[in-house]
Amino acid sequence: xxxxxxxxxxxxxxxxxxxxxxxxxxxxxxxxxxxxxxxxxxxxxxxxxxxxxxxxxxxxxxxxxxxxxxxxxxxxxxxxxxxxxxxxxxxxxxxxxxxxxxxxxxxxxxxxxxxxxxxxxxxxxxxxxxxxxxxxxxxxxxxxxxxxxxxxxxxxxxxxxxxxxxxxxxxxxxxxxxxxxxxxxxxxxxxxxxxxxxxxxxxxxxxxxxxxxxxxxxxxxxxxxxxxxxxxxxxxxxxxxxxxxxxxxxxxxxxxxxxxxxxxxxxxxxxxxxxxxxxxxxxxxxxxxxxxxxxxxxxxxxxxxxxxxxxxxxxxxxxxxxxxxxxxxxxxxxxxxxxxxxxxxxxxxxxxxxxxxxxxxxxxxxxxxxxxxxxxxxxxxxxx
Length: 384
Ligand SMILES: C[S@@+](CC[C@H](N)C(=O)[O-])C[C@H]1O[C@@H](n2cnc3c(N)ncnc32)[C@H](O)[C@@H]1O
Known about the structure:
Pfam families: Dimerisation, Methyltransf_2. By secondary structure, the protein is an alpha/beta fold. Helices cover 50% and strands 16% of the residues.
C-alpha cells in the first residue's frame, strides 16, 4: 500500500495540471467504489457539517495561524491564539483532523498540512464563505422548489430556490445590496476565482481588433463588471491603448468600484437601453449564465441595438462540453438553477441564443480548457 501510494505521489508530481486532476478523480472514484452503504450514507450525510466547522475556523483565523507556525501547536496554544475555549477547540481540532483538514502529530497537538494551507488562502476563504453563506441555504431548498414545480427545469427567475431560502421577493443581486458581508465574500470570490494569467486577455487578439480605435471612441465596455477588477487588468495590460474604458454595474457595485486611473465607473442596469453606443468591445463575464434564456435575450438585445458594424460582443463564460462534464462545472450549473433559474450552456446553446437575436458566434477562444472557460466572439449578423 505505502509503495503504491508513493508511486502515485511521484506520478502526480511529474504530471501537468490535467494529469494531476485525472489522478485526483481516479483516486476519489476508487475510494468511493470501496464504500459500503454506511460509508456512502456517512459521506453524504455529514457533508455540510464539514463546511460549517470550516466556517467557524475561518472566523477564528485558525488556518492562517496554523499555516504561519513553523512547528506543531498544542490545543492550549491554539485556544489562546484564537480566543476560543479550550474544551471547544479540542473537539473542533479532532474533527478537522478526522477529515484531514489539519494533521494531528500527537495527543492534542496539530500542524498545518496542504489542505490547511489551501484553507489559509484568502481566495479559498472567500469562495467557501460565499458557497456556505449565500448558496448553501438555496441548495437546501432545491428539493422543495422542484417538488412544487412538478420536476420541470426552472425558468421563472422570480421564484427560485433562492427565494424559498431567503423568504424574499427581491432578485439575488438586489438582495445582496442589504447583505454587505455576503456581498463582500461574493465580490472577493469573483475577483480571485481564476488566476490572472488564465484570462481572455492572453488569448483574444485585442490589439489586432482595436488597432484603429480613435481616442474618443469607447474601446472596452465591461457590462456587469462587478467592482472593476477586469477593467483594471485591461488597463494594466493595454496602458497605451486609445479609447474609453468603461465599467458598468448596479449602484452597490459601482459604490465599491476600484479607483483605476483611466476607467470610467458608470451605474447601468443592463435590462435598460445601453447608453454607450458604437463601442468597439462590449464584454460580459459570468453575467449571462445568471439568467434564463428569455432574460439573456433582453440583455443582448440592448447591446445589439447599439453595436456598430465593427463592434464585438465578447461573452466570457463556461462553455460546457456535450459529454462528461466535470463535477465543478455541473455544480456551478446546479447553483445557477437554484439561484436564478438559469444555466451553464454548451457552445451549440450559446450559438442558438445569439442567432435568435440577429447575432453570429464567429469564434470561440477557450482560454482554460480544464474549467471550460472561454470567450465567445459575437458579431452582428450580416444584414442586421
Ligand atoms: C456573477 S457577477 C460577475 C462580475 C464580473 N463580471 C466578474 O466576472 O467578476 C454578475 C455581476 O452582474 C451584476 N449585475 C446583476 N444584475 C445587473 C443589472 N441588472 N445590471 C447591471 N449589472 C448587474 C452584479 O452586480 C455582478 O457584479
